[in-house]
Specification:
419 residues, mainly alpha, two-stranded antiparallel ribbon, 2 strands, 61% helix
Length: 419
């Protein structure tokens, strides 16, 4: 879809540089003249939003790392020092902490958009798989970062999550415990653990940036999908990326940043846990240990299974399942717009994910509202539907569903007069 390059160097230096390191040609062909479907909507702006949030997280993270002390005795106080004594330290920390939540808000919208419009289907399977890898890297980075403030929830969250590896002892004796001990750097979460998590938290964003480059590359080979889910038929179906989508993306990025800054300045602790303002204490366990909100659906799946090993495998399976989505969907139609049955199941799936998130945020013995129904049973039903959606509903619907007729081209519904 990208076609031959249209870049023409306009000076002697530009021609010299272009023959040796064609960065200007690369930028011109990928960010200026790249032919993009003319019908992309607001949901396609979240790629640019995610790129912006990644840059914010890296810049604020580097500044915070200059003042943070990765020592179990001083980590909590170093965070308070950043908040109270470093010029604008409070702003940098709140930008970083809330930036993680808004990063995940944007990535979930981006993922659900990909599912709805079938952006995982051929020839974009590698693009989807790279997206799943990015999601896993984000989860790991967020978990390591959550440990660094070294408050009560940080310490006990690290203890609980790393202890899950010990469940692997039921498969191979002592192997899981050895992995947990290796992660801790000792026989319990402590100073060595904090150092390792800090190092990994600093490193992984740059790995994410590298995989983002591959993700964009994989996008530019087949070109963008579009809400109709049909291939580009000719020049009449596309417009240059600049200025049409640079301006559009810039507007939505600015709107997203305004909402993000609203939380930073007016509700900076909205997404946080108050227990994390208590210094880590290995002898006092919080009443409820919960991860950050963006990991709650997986936490609910984990807790819904009474057997530890099976719970860990279910949680891991829910993530691994995402890799196989391009082959689980047997329909020849990409976009859910033209799949009436799939559309209904898709929105049920979205609600199911929200319900799992709610179940994960409550205590293990909580009841459903004012009833006597344990929430753990709701989480079990939600977990079953999660797996059924991918492994049962997706394959079967592609075989039995009758989709609506597809437009002949992208330009036809865009340029035709309203009926």
């Amino acid at each position: 879809m990208s076609g031959p390059s249209t870049y023409v160097p306009k000076s002697g230096f530009a021609r010299w540089m272009d023959s040796r390191l064609p960065l200007a040609r690369f930028a011109h062909d990928t960010m200026l003249t790249f032919p993009t479907p003319r019908n992309l909507n607001i949901w396609y702006a979240f790629g640019a939003i995610l790129t912006t949030m990644l840059m914010i997280q890296i810049v604020t993270g580097i500044v915070l790392a200059m003042h943070y002390v990765a020592n179990a005795d001083m980590a909590f106080d170093s965070v308070e020092n950043i908040m109270r004594d470093i010029n604008y330290g409070w702003l940098i920390r709140y930008l970083h902490a809330n930036g993680a939540s808004f990063f995940f808000i944007a990535v979930y919208i981006h993922m659900f958009r990909g599912l709805y419009y079938g952006s995982y289907k051929a020839p974009r399977e590698v693009l989807w798989i790279l997206g799943v890898i990015l999601y896993l890297l984000m989860m790991a980075t967020a978990f390591f970062g959550y440990v660094l403030p070294w408050g009560q929830m940080s310490f006990w969250g690290a203890t609980v999550i790393t202890n899950f590896f010990s469940a692997l002892d039921q498969i191979t004796p002592h192997w899981g415990s050895a992995v947990a001990t290796w992660l801790w750097g000792g026989f319990a979460v402590g100073d060595a653990t904090l150092n390792r998590f800090f190092s990994l938290h600093y490193l992984l964003p740059f790995v994410i940036a590298g995989v983002v480059g591959l993700h964009v590359w994989a996008l530019h080979v087949p070109g963008n999908n579009n809400p109709l889910g049909i291939d580009v038929k000719g020049p009449q179906d596309t417009v240059p990326f600049h200025p049409y989508y640079t301006v559009k993306d810039a507007f939505y990025v600015a709107l997203f940043i305004l909402i993000y800054l609203g939380f930073v300045f007016y509700a900076p602790n909205f997404f946080g846990n108050p227990d994390n303002y208590i210094p880590a204490n290995p002898v006092v366990t919080p009443p409820d240990i919960v991860p950050e909100w963006y990991l709650l659906p997986y936490y609910a799946m984990l807790r819904s299974v009474p057997q530890k090993l099976i719970g860990v495998l279910v949680m891991a399976g829910s993530l691994i399942t995402l890799v196989f989505v391009p082959w689980l969907d047997t329909s020849k139609v990409r976009s859910t717009r033209f799949r009436p049955m799939m559309k209904q199941f898709f929105w049920i799936f979205v609600v199911d994910c929200l319900i799992l998130g709610y179940c994960g945020s409550q205590s293990a013995d909580a009841m459903l509202l004012s009833t006597s129904i344990p929430l753990v049973w709701v989480a079990r039903i939600g977990t079953l539907f999660y797996f059924a959606f991918f492994w049962l509903i997706m394959p079967l619907l592609g075989l039995i569903e009758t989709p609506k007729p597809l437009p002949a081209s992208i330009a036809q519904p865009v340029l035709s007069p309203a009926e």
